[in-house]
């Protein structure tokens, strides 16, 4: 029997049916048959031998389900790659064990792992801890510093991807001739269009307020004069002086590097969201230019829409109308939430209902890294339905300001900042995942910005 048979206990059926689909169908590309039984373990069987794993992570029937007692306990135990338990090509670091022990026992009939891999996969990919831990920042976001990944020191490692490789190595031990799908990772460049141009150009009143603010803040006429010159030029349809209108340079840089970029537009014009209207001529011309050059347009869900299905549906409709008026044909497949706001127990369902094919909000704002433990795209879990959705998550790995900005890591444009970014890129691509980079058009106003950006999107 070359097809794998995956058997899980009946009381874990829904969540582990989803995990089996993600691991075998989406990540490994291996045929498998799913079944349930009354045993107290997860078993993978092929060629007359099996791989057996314990059940340590709770099921929905357990008293510890969705409690703090069910979370991994720090300090974690690790599997040392130098021990030979994990092949060196799988990871250059020790793998943390969230649930279980670093033990493997070989028998004639198969292999017994003492690590609960299915529990680990579900914990990370469903964002289980975000349902349990209700601590949030001022923007109602679950922060990296509150995550097990940050506290245990593995946020910058794609542990789900590494454990999938570990799992594959064990499966090959019971079925040496089994083949998997091979995938080469790519760099996926994205831009949240928060500030497509200097907002001062919208009216004389706005210009006056911004100039007054410049004078008070800088006590210099240089910035006010630059803003006034841009206002006058913009009135004539000349946007070359606008510090934030960097889109031509952005597209040129991506095309030189052979990268397709995705630009996510806010379709809600209100305080705290967009100061621009997606239907205004300047934005229509921008969207037309982006698509004509072979790049993608998506939606940047507004500040409060992460908790509203109706808002997401309405905003997607508005953006669709704007695209039609621009003569743009696009499925509006992708979304990213404004400020990376996210409610794990409802936002995926709202986005799914709104018709998006994928979301790419999946990173923390305060630190970059692997929020889901993976750099691969995967089908999302619904906490409301207790089943998988149609929408996929394409995890964001790095937002430029998470590393550069003083309010987050505060590394600025230092060699340490670029090294951090390059390491995340390397780890993302190592197992065929995607390095999803968010770099705002409004964050390309200095030579240092452009140098970092060009380095990251290159080979």
Keywords:
9-stranded mixed β-sheet; 6-stranded mixed β-sheet; 19% strand
Task: Give the helix/strand layout.
Blueprint: E1 4-9, H1 13-28, E2 32-37, E3 41-46, E4 49-54, E5 77-79, E6 95-97, E7 100-107, E8 110-115, H2 117-125, H3 128-132, H4 148-152, H5 159-174, E9 187-193, H6 204-218, H7 222-235, H8 247-256, E10 261-265, H9 281-292, E11 296-301, H10 309-325, E12 334-337, H11 347-354, E13 358-359, E14 378-382, E15 387-393, E16 398-399, H12 400-404, H13 415-430, E17 435-438, H14 447-457
Parallel strand pairs: 1-2, 4-8, 9-10, 9-17, 10-11, 11-12, 12-13, 13-15, 16-17
Antiparallel strand pairs: 1-3, 3-4, 5-6, 7-8, 14-15
Helix pairs in contact: 1-2, 6-7, 10-11
Describe this structure in words.
This protein is an alpha/beta fold. Helices cover 35% and strands 19% of the residues. The chain has 14 helices and 17 strands. It has helices spanning 13-28, 117-125, 128-132, 148-152, 159-174, 204-218, 222-235, 247-256, 281-292, 309-325, 347-354, 400-404, 415-430, 447-457, and strands spanning 4-9, 32-37, 41-46, 49-54, 77-79, 95-97, 100-107, 110-115, 187-193, 261-265, 296-301, 334-337, 358-359, 378-382, 387-393, 398-399, 435-438. Strands 14-15-13-12-11-10-9-17-16 form a nine-stranded mixed beta sheet, with helices on both faces. β14 (378-382) and β15 form a beta hairpin. It is elongated, with a radius of gyration of 24 Å. It starts with a strand and ends with a helix. The model has no long low-confidence stretch (mean pLDDT 95).
């Amino acid at each position: 029997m070359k097809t794998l048979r995956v058997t899980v206990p009946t009381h874990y059926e829904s969540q582990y049916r989803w995990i089996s689909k993600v691991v075998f169908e989406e990540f490994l590309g291996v045929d498998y048959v799913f079944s349930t039984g009354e045993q107290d373990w997860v078993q993978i069987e092929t060629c007359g031998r099996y791989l057996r794993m314990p059940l340590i992570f709770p099921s929905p029937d357990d008293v510890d389900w969705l409690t703090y007692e069910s979370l991994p306990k720090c300090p974690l135990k690790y599997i040392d790659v130098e021990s030979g338990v994990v092949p060196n090509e799988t990871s250059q670091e020790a793998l943390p064990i969230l649930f279980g022990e670093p033990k493997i026992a070989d028998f004639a009939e198969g292999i017994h792992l003492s690590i609960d891999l299915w529990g680990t996969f579900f914990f990370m990919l469903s964002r289980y801890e975000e349902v349990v831990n209700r601590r949030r920042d001022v923007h109602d976001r679950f922060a990296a510093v509150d995550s097990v990944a940050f506290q245990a020191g593995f946020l910058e490692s794609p542990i789900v991807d590494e454990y999938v490789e570990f799992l594959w190595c064990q499966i090959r031990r019971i079925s040496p001739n089994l083949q998997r799908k091979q995938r080469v990772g790519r760099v996926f460049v994205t831009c949240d269009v928060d500030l497509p141009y200097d907002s001062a150009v919208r009216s004389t009143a706005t210009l006056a307020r911004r100039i007054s603010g410049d004078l008070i803040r800088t006590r210099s006429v240089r910035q006010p004069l630059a803003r006034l010159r841009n206002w006058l030029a913009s009135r004539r349809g000349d946007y070359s002086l606008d510090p934030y209108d960097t889109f031509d340079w952005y597209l040129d840089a991506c095309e030189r590097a052979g990268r397709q970029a995705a630009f996510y537009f806010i379709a809600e014009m209100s305080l705290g969201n967009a100061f621009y209207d997606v239907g205004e001529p300047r934005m229509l011309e921008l969207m037309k230019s982006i698509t004509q050059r072979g790049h993608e347009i998506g939606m940047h869900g507004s500040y409060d829409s992460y908790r509203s299905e109706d808002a997401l549906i309405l905003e997607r409709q508005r953006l669709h109308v704007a695209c039609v008026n621009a003569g743009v044909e696009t499925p509006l497949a992708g979304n990213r939430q404004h400020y990376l706001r996210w409610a794990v127990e409802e936002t995926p369902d709202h986005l799914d209902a709104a018709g998006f094919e994928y979301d790419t909000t999946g990173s923390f704002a305060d630190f970059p890294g692997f929020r889901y433990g993976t750099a691969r795209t995967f089908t999302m879990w619904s906490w409301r339905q207790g089943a998988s959705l149609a929408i996929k998550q394409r995890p964001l790995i790095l937002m430029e300001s998470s590393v550069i900005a003083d309010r987050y890591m505060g590394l600025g444009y230092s060699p340490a900042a670029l090294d951090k970014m390059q390491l995340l890129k390397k780890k993302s691509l190592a197992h065929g995942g995607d390095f999803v980079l968010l770099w705002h058009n409004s964050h390309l106003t200095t030579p240092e910005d452009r140098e970092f950006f060009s380095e990251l999107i290159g080979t």
